[in-house]
Amino acid sequence: MSEHDRHNEPRRNEAGRTRNRGQGDRPRQYSQSAPGQRKRAADPARLVAFKVLREVSAKDAYANLVLPKMIREHQLEKRDAGFATELAYGALRSQGFYDAILSTLVDRPLSELDPAILDALRLGAHQLLAMRVPKHAALDETVSLARAQIGAGPSGLINAVLRKVSLQEPEQWVAQLTAATTSESEKLSIEHSHPDWIVRALRGALIAHGREATELSALLEADNLAPVVNLVALPGLGTVDAALEAGAEPGTLVVDSATYKHGDVARVPGVREGTIRVQDAGSQLVARALANVELPVPGEDTYWLDLCAGPGGKAALLGALAVQRDARLTANEPTEHRARLVEQSMSAVPGDFWMVTTKDGRDYGTEEFAGDYDRIMVDAPCSGLGSLRRRPESRWRKQPRDIPELTSLQGELLSAAFSAVRVGGVIGFVTCSPHMAETRLVVEDFLKSQPNATLLDTGAAVNAVALEGFPASGHELAGGSTAQLWPHVHGTDAMFMAIITKTA
């Protein structure tokens, strides 16, 4: 066909389908559907994923809080709920990688795109590059979603850009994007979709906690895996048996635990009642380690304190353990709405054994509380670099400048707890971060400032409450040791713990 004939060929065939320009010498092809037949309704699962991304982008919402509500509102069945979860979480985790690709295909900075268009592009890119979705379905469904939610005009741009995305496999995109850099951390940042500063921080953390830097790729890969749901039966109050009958599997890391992979966890018996709770196995281990470790100076073991209790997961487990020991737990959370979450978390624990306070944790360092407590949990506010797999959007919100302020607060809270603990009592200092500044350095600085503070063998304390074959990675320090858990080694969040006692 001559160029003149092509130019004069009708733009639609007898069925009303439009033609495209063709590629090279290939003839022009007509679209698969006429304009009136094109899908304009969004697939429900993709719509939920899109709405989650919009909440995260526009309102700084947390995906793990928004997604379950959206699934219930749209009444998604189990299969669609799983698809929506994989799509939303995956697009958020890999946002950096997809944005790097999109920035090469869009003729303006991504910051100048309508945020809704950018979210739709990320969803389409994830389906094309990381999910078992046929390319034609990923394209058609994403364009239909955009047409329904954003408009016909933007849907054309989205269609054009995603077609270019589909021309290469992920490995080819990685090779293209990293071809011009010699920085190993920058290459890993693109390949594993982590900010460069976090890649470097995690490399330093591995070395600081006695592991090999060569594990970095495995750690980054583990951060991008969808975590299973971990359950814990509160001791004396719940049992995992009902959960196992509902399809859960026995936990392999800690007693009274299970894992669940079968949809809405609220359907598991005991979850709504609060006797079975969703809690990462690493959190279970550190709470049990604090409650189980032998007090260096025997004596009263009646008063326990969770200094930073919100939202209440560790407090609920500590409270249940306190009941078995006839101890009393004070769960402190300074933020009112988080304090209410603590109360909800503790609701299954008999009320005579616990109370919730709303003080600034540092207030417990005053003379009023000096030496009052036998066991204190300091689950200090931190960067959360250890839970990136569970909070997929958090890696893009954190900044290096956040760390100094957090480490200062961590040190102040640890000092307050040291004032409040009795001689021979114990403090469990915990962060959900392996960052050296938030873990080892905080503990080192504290031990230097307190001559009568002694670090215990924390690794042994964690191993003592873990199931057999679960060695906690740690770092020997000042005659004791710390414990550091890892996603790629233990299958938990990267939880850090140091158990400290006060000597006379």
From TrEMBL:
Stretch list, region Disordered: 1-42
Keywords: Methyltransferase, RNA-binding, S-adenosyl-L-methionine, Transferase
Segments of skewed composition (Basic and acidic residues): 1-28
Source organism, top-level taxon: Bacteria
InterPro entries for this protein: MeTrfase_RsmB-F_NOP2_cat, MeTrfase_RsmB-F_NOP2_dom, NusB-like_sf, NusB_RsmB_TIM44, RCMT, SAM-dependent_MTases_sf
Gene3D superfamilies, alphabetized: NusB-like (1.10.940.10), Vaccinia Virus protein VP39 (3.40.50.150)
GO molecular function: methyltransferase activity
GO biological process: methylation
EC number per UniProt: 2.1.1.-
Limits of the SAM-dependent MTase RsmB/NOP-type domain: 204-503
Active-site feature positions: C432 (nucleophile)
Binding-site residues for S-adenosyl-L-methionine, renumbered to this chain: C308, A309, G310, P311, G312, G313, K314, E333, D360, D379
The keyword Metal-binding is assigned to this record: no
Sequence similarity: Belongs to the class I-like SAM-binding methyltransferase superfamily. RsmB/NOP family.
Protein name: RsmB/NOP family class I SAM-dependent RNA methyltransferase
